[in-house]
Amino acid sequence: MGFEPKWKNENSDLLVRAILSLKNEDEVYRFLDDICTISEVRVLAQRIAVAGLLGRDITYNDISAATGASTATISRVNRSRLYGSGGYAHILKALEETGDEA
After folding, report:
1. Residue 92: what pLDDT?
2. Taken in order 7, 38, 19, 73, is the CA torsion positive or negative?
């Protein structure tokens, strides 16, 4: 593995392996439904939507109106998108390639 996050440990390794074992959308929905609260899933989904809109040069106010995210959340997502480990860039490119733009 080339990237080593600060939060990596045996439990996070197990989580990553669990996610990688999922084979289709139904399995992912079932897993997320069991492991996360509704609020946690909505927050994660909102961050992906925000990241996609940030890549389109939309203002923070317009992104907030479209997603319900606070400007503080938008700023954190933007900082991660620009200076983070590249996770947003990777997933947004993958979504774009499948026609599922965020």
Report:
1. 94
2. negative
